[in-house]
Specification:
Residues 189-456 form the Nal1 C-terminal domain. This is Trypsin family protein. Pfam families: Nal1_C, NAL1_N. Residues 1-48 are annotated as: Disordered. The protein is of the alpha+beta class. 14% of the residues lie in helices and 31% in strands. It contains eight helices and 24 strands. It has helices at residues 64-81, 102-111, 113-119, 195-203, 241-244, 280-284, 440-447, 455-458; strands at 6-7, 29-31, 45-46, 122-130, 133-144, 147-149, 162-164, 170-180, 212-214, 219-221, 224-228, 235-239, 253-257, 265-270, 273-279, 294-304, 343-348, 352-366, 372-381, 396-399, 408-416, 421-423, 435-439, 449-451. The protein has a six-stranded antiparallel β-barrel with strand order 17-18-19-23-21-20. Strands 1-3 form a two-stranded antiparallel ribbon. A two-stranded antiparallel sheet has the order 2-6.
């Protein structure tokens, strides 16, 4: 029924396995830029059947004229930013203002994207990490295949300690080692059993966030109960596009827990609208990269409940968590500590309730054709435990609050690297799995949906 995680074939560069320590090393350690072109790619993998994105009814690349216009606009944008900007700083820190917001860090990274791309497998926005602990120092995280001491590198091979952007705003640069582990191994979905997971897979009479949903060839997790902002304002649910849409089955029907052809299940509804990728300027409201072809992984699908589906079986609370608050809208002009370093939880049909930390935002990587891709969240599970397992795609990512307020939805999981590659964060500890997520607020706006968190909202009151 469910196959191995989908290889998205985004190839930013190569990487090799390493036992080196990573983010806890100070600035006298650098990344090695001379990586073999045949090395494996840094890429997250989504759960679901393999298929081509290019011929999906729900997906289309911008027209060539649109790309041409965007390329001119992009060139003008960065050309204007270049005025008064100093080159990267080696050996000392700049004297201007230190970057504190997501927008400032993303702008600095975009301005220096060419030099960073030459050195790295990808980059992200976050805090420096020393000895496995997040500091409060804003930084551009640079992913490399191998970290070595500065004495083994030429001057031109060393990453700068800091980068300066428009207006003299600057930030630190932190090097993160990405360890690659070869071809993916088949991961059995039923490897974890708890009472919570059993309920999510069909033993519970109600469905809601975290429940198993399935199409003809894939299954994953129901992310959230939502209402359309358009038309008849139907109530339905949100999950990943790659969970809901299989191009071999044009009706795109969804079931819980399974399609009748594969086991017991009830028809939930058919996909009404979905998306895979969107250009960076439409997603972030800015040009986040210098490449003319720059896209963000959106990966969402809206499935209105069928007219004959019993809505009494829908639960707006999250099983294992309880009631949730409003969507946490990510404002790029907010301080990065409003997002990075925050604790999160998720409930998914494979691994149930797990906890983690948002380590980075706007992870950037490039394929072999030079197309630039972004994914919003990089989450690492707590205590060396993975935040997601295969089949958890679509799960809601919830920001927790130390003062007892309701957890606030901030994203949905679309993939991870549990059996592909890992980030090594601490000396003497094994590398850690990481999870990729989509910014929920932006996805809801793109698909014209509102989150339902109360029974009154479910009834349209």
């Amino acid at each position: 029924m469910d196959r191995m995680r989908l290889d998205l074939r985004f190839h930013p560069s190569g990487s090799t396995q390493s036992e080196e320590s990573t983010m806890d090393l100070d600035r006298n350690y650098c990344g090695h830029p001379n990586l073999p072109s045949s090395s494996p790619p840094l890429q997250p993998f989504a759960s679901g059947a393999q298929h081509s994105e290019s011929n999906a009814a729900y997906f289309s690349w911008p027209t060539s004229s649109r790309l041409h216009d965007a390329a001119e606009d992009r060139a003008n944008y960065f050309g204007n930013l270049q005025k008064g900007v100093l080159p990267e700083t080696l050996g000392c820190l700049p004297t201007g203002q230190q970057a504190t917001t997501l927008l400032e860090l993303m702008t600095i990274r975009a301005f220096h994207s060419k030099i960073l791309r030459r050195f790295s497998l990808g980059t992200a926005i976050g805090f420096r990490i020393r000895r496995g602990v997040l500091t409060d120092i804003p930084a551009i995280l640079v992913f490399v295949a191998r970290k070595v001491h500065r004495q083994w590198l030429n001057h031109v091979q060393c990453l700068p300690a800091a980068l300066e952007g428009p207006g003299g705003v600057w930030c630190d640069v932190d090097v993160v080692e990405f360890s690659y582990y070869g071809a993916p191994a088949a991961t059995p979905k039923e490897q974890l059993y708890t009472e919570l997971v059993d309920g999510l897979r069909g033993s519970d009479p109600c469905i809601g966030s975290g429940s198993q949903v399935a199409s003809q060839e894939t299954y994953g997790t129901l992310g959230a109960i939502v209402r359309s902002r358009t038309g008849n304002q139907q109530v339905g649910f949100l999950t990943n596009r790659h969970v809901a849409v299989d191009l071999d089955y044009p009706n795109q029907k969804m079931f819980h827990p399974l399609p009748p052809s594969l086991g017991p299940g009830v028809y939930l509804g058919a996909v009404e609208r979905a998306t895979s990728f969107i250009t960076d300027d439409l997603w972030y409201g800015i040009f986040a990269g210098t490449n003319a072809e720059t896209f963000v992984r959106a990966d969402g699908a809206f499935i209105p409940f069928a007219e004959d589906f019993n809505m009494n079986n829908v639960n707006v609370t999250v099983k294992g968590v309880g009631q949730i608050g409003d969507v946490n809208i990510i404002d790029l002009q907010s301080p990065i500590n409003s997002l990075i370093g925050r604790q999160v939880v998720k409930v998914g049909r494979s691994s149930g309730l797990t906890t983690g930390t948002i380590m980075a935002y706007a992870l950037e990587y490039n394929d072999e054709k030079g197309i630039c891709f972004f994914t919003d969240f990089l989450v690492v599970g707590e205590n060396q435990q993975t935040f997601d397992l295969e089949g958890d795609s679509g799960s809601l990512i919830l920001l927790t609050s130390p003062d007892g307020q309701k957890p606030r939805p901030v994203g949905i999981i679309w993939g991870g690297t549990a059996n592909r590659g890992r980030l090594k964060l601490k000396v003497g500890q094994p590398p850690e799995n990481w999870t990729s997520g989509v910014d929920l607020g932006r996805l809801l706006d793109l698909l014209e949906l509102d989150l339902i968190t109360t029974n009154e909202g479910l009834q349209g009151l």
